[in-house]
Write a structure and sequence with these properties.
With 364 residues, the protein is α/β, with parallel strands linked by helices. It has helices spanning 18-25, 46-57, 67-80, 92-104, 120-127, 147-153, 175-184, 207-210, 245-249, 257-267, 270-290, 310-319, 343-362; strands at 33-35, 87-90, 110-115, 131-136, 159-163, 190-194, 216-221, 234-237, 294-295, 302-306, 322-326, 335-339. It contains 13 helices and 12 strands. It binds pyridoxal-5'-phosphate.
Length: 364
């Protein structure tokens, strides 16, 4: 008995978990600063946690989700001024990527994605018997994301992914570039705008463009600014023309009840999300000003830094209790990505990294 040929599939490589690293180092998880997965250093909204506890005590965990899914969909539709059927709730934005692959890709269809970039776009395409090509962001050009870059690489793929703000570089597409791409691709091409870090950006969401373009879908998540990564809840906003495809491709009850309730409560806690955004904007500025390494302008809750030998620097940093992301798996073996922590965490991380960078530069 064999699976189908999975040799072109590679596992998703996440940042390492805090318990895992603590166990390896023989340290208490509380002594570690985890800045490797772009999580919210303030945790989730207390209102979200309360909603989860309340749900377990009242409705219980034994019933299939229904009302909470409807309520969250309505709240998101209201937030963005779109119709409820345009909101596809999914287990994380990753779930939305899967549903779009399912809804769009015939076997052999291609997607176009950024390199470096988020690995799940092509993973999902391959799961759905599709193929992947890349448009290459250039370090020499400051990882600039432009319409020309995408359209020059474009060869009629069925889906084109734009990540803005981009992970791991932090760079963005302008509104004009997004519209140029949406207008410049063939009619059969869906342009997917991944706004997993949209809250941290100063730019308006591309959700505003969905009603004027039949080929645009926008991804959002509660994992980052809303601090609910552990619950797996995100969504796509899609054009009304094909909104009904959701019911045809969705896994039954994929967005779970606790996640929907927590997200609903989190949406209702603007104070928490605003504080989270403010901390991230402060931290990325602090890192850019104070890290003794080349960094890039970031619109996300992380900063990319050129440290020469990422593997060595990330390992030494971890040994001193600061976990950061070695970007070798993104094809950037000289770079690390440091998530924005609290003020204290960020300052400690910068101090630790600067010490390591000084050591590394004296001993080749
Ligand atoms: C974190 C992230 C996502 C989605 O994460 P979920 O937890 O699945 O919502 C999507 N795209 C990018 C670029 C990300 O960094």
């Amino acid at each position: 008995m064999q699976t189908r040929d999975l040799s072109s599939h590679s596992p998703y490589v996440p940042g390492r978990g805090i318990e895992e690293v603590a166990r390896d180092l023989g340290m208490d998880p509380d002594e570690l600063i985890k800045l490797s997965s772009n999580e919210n250093p303030h945790g989730s909204s207390p209102k979200a946690a309360a909603a989860v506890i309340d749900a377990t005590e009242t409705t219980g965990l034994h019933v299939y989700p229904k009302a909470s899914h409807t309520d969250l969909t309505a709240a998101i539709a209201d937030q963005w001024d779109v119709a409820a059927e345009q909101v596809w709730l999914t287990p994380g934005a990753d779930g939305a990527i899967d549903l779009l692959s399912r809804a769009f890709l015939e076997p052999g269809d291609g997607i176009l994605e950024p390199d470096p970039g988020f690995s799940y776009y092509s993973m999902s395409a391959r799961y759905h018997h599709g193929t992947a090509r890349t448009y290459d962001l250039s370090k020499a050009a400051e990882f600039a994301q432009t319409a020309e870059l995408v359209l020059e690489a474009y060869e009629g793929e069925r889906m084109v992914y734009l990540t803005t703000p981009h992970n791991p570089t932090g760079s963005e597409f302008s509104r004009e570039a997004i519209e140029t791409i949406a207008d410049g691709v063939d009619e059969h091409t869906l342009v997917v705008i991944d706004e997993a870090y949209g809250e941290y950006s100063q730019r308006p969401s591309s959700i505003e463009l969905v009603d004027d373009h039949e080929n645009l879908a926008v991804l959002r998540t509660f994992s980052k600014a809303y601090g609910l990564a552990g619950l797996r809840i995100g969504y796509a906003v899609v054009p009304s023309e094909w909104a009904d495809a959701y019911a045809r491709v969705n896994t039954p009850f994929a967005a779970n009840d606790l996640a929907c309730r927590a997200a609903l409560a989190a949406l209702d806690d603007q104070t928490h999300v605003e504080r989270s955004i403010e901390t991230a904007r402060w931290a990325r500025g602090y890192m850019r000003e104070n890290l003794d390494a080349k960094t890039w302008d970031s619109a996300g809750n992380f900063v990319l830094a050129d440290v020469g030998d990422a593997e060595t620097v990330a390992a030494r940093s971890q040994a001193r209790g600061v976990i950061i992301r070695d970007c070798t798996s993104f094809g950037l073996p000289e770079c690390v990505r440091i998530s924005c922590g609290t003020e204290a965490e960020t300052k400690t991380a910068v101090e630790t990294l600067n010490t390591i960078l000084a050591e590394v530069s004296v001993q080749p």
